[in-house]
Amino acid sequence: MTDNAMETCCKKELEEMGFFRIEIEAAKGFLAVLRSYLDSLCSNLRSHTITNVQSNDDKVSLLLKESFIDSFPSRDRPFMKLFVDTQLFSVHTDLVLSFIQKE
User: Fold this and answer.
1) Are residues 36 and 16 in the same domain?
2) Which residues form a coiled coil (predicted)?
């Protein structure tokens, strides 16, 4: 299923559940801002990963969390220490690392 087909399908389902177009657009806007914020937080993620290439050319990348946290100003580190343990961060970094591994 293409992204457009999936979006159309989801819009229909949301509208059937009583969501209005304006609410759907507001949610999409919020998610775009959230993704942009996550991308900015993780912009230097590659500098804090190690990649192991297996004998069958599979790559495994690991995030060095402490190094990543230490790259932020000291005033931001308490937040980052908690944030790196969230599911949101894990899912986002897994996606970013999977792109790094394909390079």
Assistant:
1) yes
2) none
Indicate if the pLDDT at residue 26 is higher than 60: yes
Strands (E), 1-103: 49-53, 59-63
From residue 72, alpha-carbon distances to 16, 26, 36, 38 in Å are 44, 31, 18, 14
What pLDDT does 96 receive?
84
Cα Rg of the chain (Å, integer): 18
Q: Which domain range does residue 26 map to?
A: 1-41
Domain count, the chain: 2
Together in a domain, 34 and 63: no
- The answer on 98 and 53 residing in a single domain is yes
Average pLDDT in the chain: 82
Over residues 4-20, the pLDDT tens digits come to 555 566 767 766 676 67
Q: Does residue 65 share a domain with residue 47?
A: yes
Question: What's the start-to-end Cα distance of the chain, in Å?
Answer: 25
